[in-house]
Amino acid sequence: MFLKYIHHLLIIVFAYSLISLEARNHRRYRFVVKEASYNRLCEKKTILTVNGKFPGPTLKVHKGETIVVDVHNHGKYNISIHWHGVKQPRNPWTDGPEYITQCPIQPGRKFSQKVIFSDEEGTLWWHAHSDWSRATVHGAIIIYPKPGTYYPFPKPRAEVPIILGEWWKEDIMQVLEEFVASGGQPMDSDAYTINGQPGDLYPCSKHDTFKLKVKHGNTYLLRLINTGMNEIHFFAVAKHNLTVVATDASYTKPLTRNYIVIGPGQTMDCLMHANQDPGRYYMAARAYVNSPGIRFDNTTTTATVNYENGLYNPSELPYLPYYNDSSSALDFITSIRSLNSESHPTCAGPNGTRLAASMNNISFVNPKIDILEAYFYNTPGVFGKRFPDYPPLVYNYTADVIPLELLISKRGTQVKVVKYNSNVEVVFQGTNNVGGIDHPMHLHGYSFYVVGRGLGNFDEEKDSSNYNLEDPQHLNTVIVPKNGWAAIRFKADNPDFNFLEIGVWFLHCHFERHITWGMETVFIVRSGRGPKEHVLPPPHDMPPC
Ligand SMILES: *[C@@H]1O[C@H](CO)[C@@H](O)[C@H](O)[C@H]1NC(C)=O
Ligand SMILES: *[C@@H]1O[C@H](CO)[C@@H](O)[C@H](O)[C@H]1NC(C)=O
Ligand SMILES: *[C@@H]1O[C@H](CO)[C@@H](O)[C@H](O)[C@H]1NC(C)=O
Ligand SMILES: *[C@@H]1O[C@H](CO)[C@@H](O)[C@H](O)[C@H]1NC(C)=O
Ligand SMILES: *[C@@H]1O[C@H](CO)[C@@H](O)[C@H](O)[C@H]1NC(C)=O
Ligand SMILES: *[C@@H]1O[C@H](CO)[C@@H](O)[C@H](O)[C@H]1NC(C)=O
Ligand SMILES: *[C@@H]1O[C@H](CO)[C@@H](O)[C@H](O)[C@H]1NC(C)=O
C-alpha cells in the first residue's frame, strides 16, 4: 500500500501566533524614481525625480513611527535612497548609501525600505545616495511630536519646508563625468533654488518664484533644508528675524538672528514672526565660501513672503553676510545650543596630480559589493579594518604652505570597527592641504554631540578641557571650520531609547565633490551579547549586485 511509503516527511506544527500590530500598521509610501521634464532658466530639461516631483514628495510622520517606502526604479540609472538623519536602530539594511549598506537598485527593480524613526523630532530629509543624482532626487521629512505631546514653542500658524537646492543646465551625470575625467573642480551650478525655483534674479524665473503667504501677527515655522551639492549657504528674510528652534531634528535653545548659516545635509527649523507692514518681502540665499581663489556659483536665489492684503512692495534683498565672511558664519554656527542640558586650476591638481580628498591620509574607494553584506556574510576581500585612529603623520595641518609630499594620499577601503557600547569621540581636523575650506561632516545612524570647535590645530590637552558637556549642539551633520577642528561624541548604542545603532554606518563630507574625491570612511559598530544587541535580519528583497 502506498500508505507505507513516504517520500517527504513534512511536520506541521499548529500554533497561534501574533502579528505585531505595529508591523501591520506601517504606513506605506510609493516612490517611483523616473525622469520628468522641467523648465528652468529659459530651458527645458529632463531630470531624475521621485514621482515626477521636484523637489520630491514630503514624508510626514510622528516621532517613533516606522514606515515602509517602496522604491521603484523606473529611471535609467542605478539609484539608492537614504533617509538622512534617521537613526534606523539595528537596521542599517535600508539606510541607503550604495556600496556601503546595499548594492544600488538597478533600473526596473524595486526595494522596499523600512524607515525606523526613534528619537528624531523636527525636520530631516531623504535623498538619492548614488553618484550625484541627489541633485534632483530629494525631499523633506517632517517628524511631528507624538500625538498628545507638543513643540517646546507655541504652535505656529503654519509650517513650510524651505528647500535650498542647486541647479545645473547640464545633465547632472554629465557634470559628474566631466569632473571626474578632468581631475579638477566640478563646473559651477547655474542657479540656486528655493523649493525648486531660482527666483526673480534669474532669467525666465520671476513668474514661478516660491511665495510664502502670511497673515500679519502670526508666527510661521520654516523648515529649512540645504540639499545643495557643493556649498554652505547664508539665508535670510528681509526685515524679519529668524528664531532657530531645532537643528537636524533635535531642539535647540531659541536663537534669534537676522541671518542663518546652513551646510549641505543640515536642517534648521526657524520661527518667523510676521510683524512687518503688510507687503511683500524677499527671502534669499547665497553661498558662503571662505577660500580665496576657489571658483563657485556666486548667484543669489530668492523667494517671497507675501502678506495678506499687502500694499507695501519693497524690493530690497535681505542682509546677507559677504561670501567669505567667516566670522559671521562662525559666530552663528557656534551660537547654537541644544535645548536640554545635555584658485581654480582649469584641469587637475598641482604638479600633474589629480584633486582628491582623504581622511587620515586614505582616499576612500567604493568596493564592488556593499560593506554591510560583506560584513554580515563574512565575505573576505571587500574592505579592510585598518582605518587609523590617528593621522599617520603629525604636521602643522593649518600652515600657510604645505609641502607637496604631504599632499599625496593613499587609496583604500578601510573601515573603523567600534565595540558595542563604546563611547566614541571623533575630532575632525581641517587641513590647508590644497587650500582649506569648511567641511560639513555627516554620520549615518547617529546624532552626535558637538563638544568642541576651534581654529588652528587641535590641542588634545588644552582643547579637551574646554569642551561643552552641558548643552552641546545635537546634530547629524557638523560644519568643521576652515583650518579648524570640531570634536563630536556619541555612544555606540543608545540605551536611553532602547535602541542600538549597531551595524555599518557611513561617515562622509556632505560636499558631493568631496565624496567623489574620497573624503569618507565607514564605522562598523559590532554587536553586543544581549538579545537585542545585534543587527536585524536582512530584508528579503535586498538589491543584488
Ligand atoms: C530682530 O532682533 C533684534 C535683536 O533681538 C531686535 O532688536 C529687532 O527689533 C528684531 N527685528 C524684528 C523685525 O523683529
Ligand atoms: C560672480 O562671479 C562672476 C564670475 O566669476 C563675476 O564676474 C562677478 O563679479 C561675481 N559677482 C559677485 C556679486 O561677486
Ligand atoms: C573677502 O573678499 C574680499 C573681496 O575679494 C576681500 O577684500 C576680503 O579681504 C575678504 N575677506 C576675508 C575675511 O577673507
Ligand atoms: C613637481 O614634480 C617634479 C618631477 O617630479 C619635481 O622635480 C618638482 O620638484 C615638483 N614640484 C613641486 C612644486 O614639488
Ligand atoms: C601653523 O601654521 C599657522 C599658519 O601659518 C601658524 O599661524 C601657526 O603658528 C603654525 N603652528 C605651529 C604649531 O607651528
Ligand atoms: C600618505 O601616504 C602616502 C603613501 O603612503 C605617503 O607618501 C604620505 O607621506 C602620507 N602622507 C601623510 C600626510 O601621512
Ligand atoms: C549598476 O549596479 C550594478 C550592481 O552593482 C553594477 O554591476 C553596474 O555596473 C552598475 N551600473 C552603473 C552604470 O554603474
UniProtKB/TrEMBL annotation:
<feature type="signal peptide">
    <location>
        <begin position="1"/>
        <end position="23"/>
    </location>
</feature>
<dbReference type="InterPro" id="IPR034289">
    <property type="entry name" value="CuRO_3_LCC"/>
</dbReference>
<dbReference type="GO" id="GO:0052716">
    <property type="term" value="F:hydroquinone:oxygen oxidoreductase activity"/>
</dbReference>
<keyword id="KW-0479">Metal-binding</keyword>
<dbReference type="GO" id="GO:0005507">
    <property type="term" value="F:copper ion binding"/>
</dbReference>
<comment type="similarity">
    <text>Belongs to the multicopper oxidase family.</text>
</comment>
<dbReference type="InterPro" id="IPR011706">
    <property type="entry name" value="Cu-oxidase_C"/>
</dbReference>
<dbReference type="InterPro" id="IPR033138">
    <property type="entry name" value="Cu_oxidase_CS"/>
</dbReference>
<dbReference type="InterPro" id="IPR008972">
    <property type="entry name" value="Cupredoxin"/>
</dbReference>
<keyword id="KW-0732">Signal</keyword>
<keyword id="KW-0560">Oxidoreductase</keyword>
<dbReference type="InterPro" id="IPR001117">
    <property type="entry name" value="Cu-oxidase_2nd"/>
</dbReference>
<dbReference type="Pfam" id="PF00394">
    <property type="entry name" value="Cu-oxidase"/>
</dbReference>
<dbReference type="InterPro" id="IPR034288">
    <property type="entry name" value="CuRO_1_LCC"/>
</dbReference>
<dbReference type="Pfam" id="PF07732">
    <property type="entry name" value="Cu-oxidase_3"/>
</dbReference>
<feature type="domain" description="Plastocyanin-like">
    <location>
        <begin position="33"/>
        <end position="146"/>
    </location>
</feature>
<dbReference type="Pfam" id="PF07731">
    <property type="entry name" value="Cu-oxidase_2"/>
</dbReference>
<keyword id="KW-0677">Repeat</keyword>
<dbReference type="InterPro" id="IPR011707">
    <property type="entry name" value="Cu-oxidase-like_N"/>
</dbReference>
<protein>
    <recommendedName>
        <fullName>laccase</fullName>
        <ecNumber>1.10.3.2</ecNumber>
    </recommendedName>
</protein>
<feature type="domain" description="Plastocyanin-like">
    <location>
        <begin position="159"/>
        <end position="309"/>
    </location>
</feature>
<dbReference type="InterPro" id="IPR034285">
    <property type="entry name" value="CuRO_2_LCC"/>
</dbReference>
<keyword id="KW-0052">Apoplast</keyword>
<keyword id="KW-0186">Copper</keyword>
<dbReference type="GO" id="GO:0046274">
    <property type="term" value="P:lignin catabolic process"/>
</dbReference>
<dbReference type="InterPro" id="IPR002355">
    <property type="entry name" value="Cu_oxidase_Cu_BS"/>
</dbReference>
<keyword id="KW-0325">Glycoprotein</keyword>
<dbReference type="GO" id="GO:0048046">
    <property type="term" value="C:apoplast"/>
</dbReference>
<keyword id="KW-0439">Lignin degradation</keyword>
<feature type="domain" description="Plastocyanin-like">
    <location>
        <begin position="388"/>
        <end position="527"/>
    </location>
</feature>
<keyword id="KW-0964">Secreted</keyword>
<dbReference type="InterPro" id="IPR045087">
    <property type="entry name" value="Cu-oxidase_fam"/>
</dbReference>
